[in-house]
Specification:
- The complex is a heterodimer of chains A (200) and B (259).
- Chain A is an alpha/beta fold.
- Chain A folds into 3 domains: 31 residues; 85 residues, Copper binding periplasmic protein CusF (OB fold (Dihydrolipoamide Acetyltransferase, E2P), Beta Barrel); 68 residues, 3-Layer(aba) Sandwich (Oxidized Rhodanese, domain 1), CATH 3.40.250.
- Chain A has 5 helices and 10 strands.
- In chain A, strands 1, 2, 3, 4, 5, 6 and 7 form a 7-stranded mixed beta sheet that branches. A 3-stranded parallel beta sheet of chain A has the order 9-8-10.
- In chain A, strand 8, helix 4 and strand 9 form a beta-alpha-beta unit.
- Chain B is an alpha/beta fold.
- Chain B has a 5-stranded parallel beta sheet with strand order 2-6-5-3-4. A 4-stranded parallel beta sheet of chain B has the order 8-7-9-10. In chain B, strands 11-12 form a two-stranded antiparallel ribbon.
- Chain B is globular.
- At the A-B interface, strand 4, helix 3, helix 4 and strand 10 of A face helix 1, strand 1, helix 2, strand 2 and helix 3 of B.
C-alpha cells in the first residue's frame, strides 16, 4: 500500500471517528445534568464529579402524585417517579425511612425532574451475636450499670439525648466518639451497649 | 444508623465486649419502657422558644412552694382529666416531673400519655430537686392548670385559621392552589381555589401568576409542601397548609379541615 493511500485511509478513519465522537458527544451532552449533593454525602462519595446524580435526605413521598421530596443541604428538590423507576434497598418508595440518605439518578422527562433510579443507603449489618433485644436491655437497666456491669451509650446528637433517652444511658454523640472514649471507658472488658434512633 | 458505626469504632480501639441495640429508641418506646430527659432539654426548648408541655406531678403543697417555670400541675384526678387539652400533634414534646426523679405518679402519667400515641414524652431524670439544686429558675407563682400548647409553624406553613380566612373572604392578592388530582377534585373542592395537580405543576408553572401570593393545599399537606418547594424554588411568594381535608358525601359543598 502506498504512503498516499495509507494517508487517505488514515484521514478517512479520523473523519469517521470524529463524526461518531461528535454525535455521541452531542447525545450525552444533551442528557448530562449537573450533580446536586448534600454535603454529608460528599464525605464518602464523589457525587460532585458525576452527572445526573442527586443525593440527599429523603423527606417525603406522595404516591397520589408520584413525587418525592429530597433535602439537599438547605434546599429541597421535588422529583417525580413512575413504575419504571428502579428502586434499590427499599420495598417501596413510601417505605423509605425519613431522613435516610438516598441517591437518585435523574433525567428531565416532559419538563420535570424524573428519577430513573433511586438507591437507598444500605444499612450497616450488625452480626447477630452482637445484637441485644429490648427485653435483655430492660433487664440490665433494671439492675443499673454497676450491678449489671454495663455502660449504655446513646450515639445520637446531645440535643436528642437531652430530650429523651433510655434510663442509665450516657450521651456519647458519634461525632465526639474519640474525645469521649477516654473519659467514659475504664477498661476494655466492660460490656458496652450502643443505641441510636434505630434503623432510620 | 449511628450506633453500629460507634460499635465498629469501639472494636477497632480494642474494646472486646461490644453490643448494639439496633432497633434503638423507637423500639424501646414501642415496648412500653420509660424514657428520661434532663434539665438541658428544658433549657434548650426555652432558648429556641420551642413549644413543649411540662407537667408537675407533685402534690399541690409542694407545687405551691415552687415549681419549674411553665409547668402545668397534674389534676387531683390524674392525667386523664387533662387528656382533652393535649394537642393533636403526636410529636409534641412532653416532659413530666416528680420530686426527685422517676416516681409512681410520673410513671403512671408517662404510660397513659404514651398510650395515647405521643412519641416524645419523657420523665425529667432528677425531678424538681435536680432542677433546683442545679441552680435553675424556680417559679413560686401559681402553676397553670390548663395546657396551652401552640405548635410552631414550619417554614412556609400557613396557619389553618389564616387559610380559612382566605376561603371565606378571597383576597385579590392571594391565590389558593389545590394540587390534588382531578379525580379528587371531582369528589369535592374548596371555594375560590384553582386546581393544578402536583405532578403537572412544574410543566404548567407559567399558569401561576408571579405577582401574587400562592397558598397551596392538598388532602393532608404532604403534596402541598412539595408544591410549596417547587414554587419557592421558582421564585414565588408561596405558603402551604398542613391539614387534613375531607368532604361530606351527603351534603354538597360541606367539608372538614383539621390539623
Amino acid at each position: 500500500m502506498s504512503k498516499r493511500s495509507l494517508f487517505v485511509i488514515g484521514a478517512f478513519s479520523f473523519l469517521i471517528v470524529g463524526v461518531f465522537w461528535t454525535l455521541n458527544g452531542l447525545a450525552v451532552a444533551d442528557d448530562k445534568l449537573p450533580a446536586k449533593s448534600d454535603q454529608s454525602c460528599l464525605k464518602c462519595h464523589e457525587y460532585d464529579k458525576q452527572s445526573n446524580v442527586m443525593a440527599g435526605k429523603f423527606k417525603s413521598a406522595s404516591v397520589k402524585a408520584n413525587c418525592l421530596q429530597l433535602q439537599i443541604d438547605k434546599g429541597l428538590e421535588v422529583i417525580t417517579f413512575d413504575d419504571a423507576t428502579v428502586l434499590k434497598n427499599a420495598p417501596s418508595i413510601p417505605e423509605i425511612p425519613k431522613e435516610e440518605s438516598v441517591k437518585v439518578i435523574y433525567a428531565k422527562k416532559d419538563g420535570k425532574t424524573y428519577a430513573k433510579e433511586i438507591e437507598v443507603k444500605k444499612g450497616i449489618a450488625v452480626p447477630a451475636e452482637q445484637l441485644i433485644t429490648a427485653e435483655q436491655l430492660a433487664d440490665l437497666v433494671a439492675k443499673g450499670p454497676e450491678k449489671g456491669s454495663y455502660i449504655l451509650l446513646d450515639s445520637r446528637p446531645m440535643e436528642r439525648y437531652n430530650e429523651g433517652h433510655i434510663p442509665t444511658a450516657v450521651g456519647m454523640p458519634f461525632f465526639a466518639f474519640d474525645k469521649l472514649a477516654e473519659k467514659l471507658f475504664k477498661d476494655k472488658d466492660t460490656l458496652q451497649i450502643y443505641y441510636c434512633a434505630g434503623f432510620s | 444508623m449511628l450506633s453500629p458505626l460507634a460499635a465498629r469504632k469501639a472494636e477497632k480501639l480494642g474494646y472486646k465486649n461490644v453490643k448494639v441495640y439496633h432497633a434503638g429508641l423507637p423500639d424501646w418506646r414501642k415496648a412500653g419502657h420509660l424514657v428520661v430527659s434532663n434539665n438541658a432539654a428544658i433549657e434548650e426548648y426555652n432558648k429556641l422558644d420551642a413549644s413543649y408541655i411540662l407537667i408537675d406531678t407533685r402534690s399541690a403543697d409542694l407545687i405551691a412552694k415552687g415549681h419549674i417555670p411553665k409547668a402545668v400541675s397534674l389534676p387531683k384526678d390524674g392525667i386523664d382529666a387533662l387528656k382533652d387539652q393535649f394537642p393533636k400533634f403526636k410529636g409534641a414534646a412532653i416532659i413530666l416531673y416528680g420530686d426527685d426523679g422517676v416516681s409512681e405518679e410520673t410513671k403512671k402519667a408517662f404510660h397513659a400519655i404514651a398510650g395515647w400515641g405521643y412519641n416524645q414524652v419523657s420523665i425529667l431524670d432528677k425531678g424538681f430537686k435536680g432542677w433546683q439544686s442545679a441552680g435553675k429558675t424556680v417559679s413560686t407563682e401559681a402553676a397553670a392548670t390548663t395546657i396551652n400548647y401552640v405548635r410552631k409553624l414550619l417554614p412556609g406553613e400557613v396557619e389553618l385559621s389564616v387559610f380559612k380566612g382566605f376561603l371565606e373572604k378571597p383576597s385579590p392578592d392571594t391565590i389558593i392552589l389545590d394540587v390534588r388530582n382531578v379525580a379528587e377534585v371531582n369528589e369535592g373542592k374548596l371555594p375560590n381555589t384553582v386546581n393544578i395537580p402536583l405532578d403537572e405543576l412544574e410543566v404548567r408553572i407559567s399558569e401561576v401568576p408571579k405577582d401574587k401570593r400562592i397558598i397551596v393545599h392538598c388532602a393532608t399537606g404532604a403534596r402541598a409542601e412539595m408544591a410549596y418547594t417547587i414554587l419557592k424554588n421558582a421564585g414565588y411568594n408561596a405558603g402551604y397548609l398542613r391539614a387534613t381535608l375531607s368532604f361530606d358525601k351527603d351534603k354538597e359543598g360541606a367539608y372538614t379541615l383539621e390539623e
